[in-house]
């Protein structure tokens, strides 16, 4: 499989698309982004990095940060995390509150907002937000091998000023003692983690440990093999909220989306893929990003549901 030619085909096909979705506007700073952009990067298990389109343009990773935050939280508290957050798809929107009352303040999974706020609470660990934010940034830089990765303070401030739903979720869970630090500190940390800015190239590199059974490609281990597999399992079942089933059906590999329009997708043993296009579909997932991954999976044969020998890439 000639991945360079495939990337060229994908970039050309996405340029022709007229249904490009709608840029998120509930975080005012994100509404300023031009919906005409599309980028893709593929980091392969044999150490290549192939890119196309706007792969060097930075974007807000938003909920993709929940993958890295979960990895850190599991490193801190291990399986005890699962006393405070579930592992089931919610079947609801990413910012929904409805299940929390019936389910006693325990969010369905770490990738919906409520679950990610609990994870942020765990990662605070009694420290000030700047300590947790610094740790997260160092972790992502280490995964990507790139110290240029930064937090976009305007995006963080924009969400801090308007994140009423997240404030409601955090306060609600505080009432169940499932958020244990002051709500403003937890959300300060969460909003900054979401405001990490990366380009497709950096994001694909940061995702390599998940295709390598938890190994860092430069040596050493980020997580154990079983933990890497479990994070991938959660990405497949919960990474696209109430559209996770549709993503598994159409694309067939674990993926995590963010309202900045990025998606990180993992083909175990093969590739870590980042796509980005800011226009979202009605579930809040990148419209073109999903289409591009569908095309890539079809052309390469990459799927977690097929034996590796049929993969062409
Ligand atoms: N789906 C997302 O990317 C949501 C992240 C965003 N920061 C929020 O909490 O609303």
From TrEMBL:
Catalytically driven reaction(s): L-glutamine + H2O = L-glutamate + NH4(+)
Annotated keywords: Acetylation, Hydrolase
Residues engaged in binding substrate: 63, 113, 159, 166, 190, 241, 259
Record carries keyword Transmembrane helix: no
Gene3D superfamilies: DD-peptidase/beta-lactamase superfamily
One biological process term in Gene Ontology: glutamate biosynthetic process
InterPro entries: Beta-lactam/transpept-like, Glutaminase
GO molecular function terms attached to this record: glutaminase activity
Highest taxon of the lineage: Bacteria
Quaternary structure note: Homotetramer.
Family as reported in the entry's similarity comment: Belongs to the glutaminase family.
Cited PANTHER family: GLUTAMINASE
Identification of the protein by name: Glutaminase
Species of the source: Sphingobium yanoikuyae ATCC 51230
Organismal lineage: Bacteria, Pseudomonadati, Pseudomonadota, Alphaproteobacteria, Sphingomonadales
Gene assigned in the entry: glsA
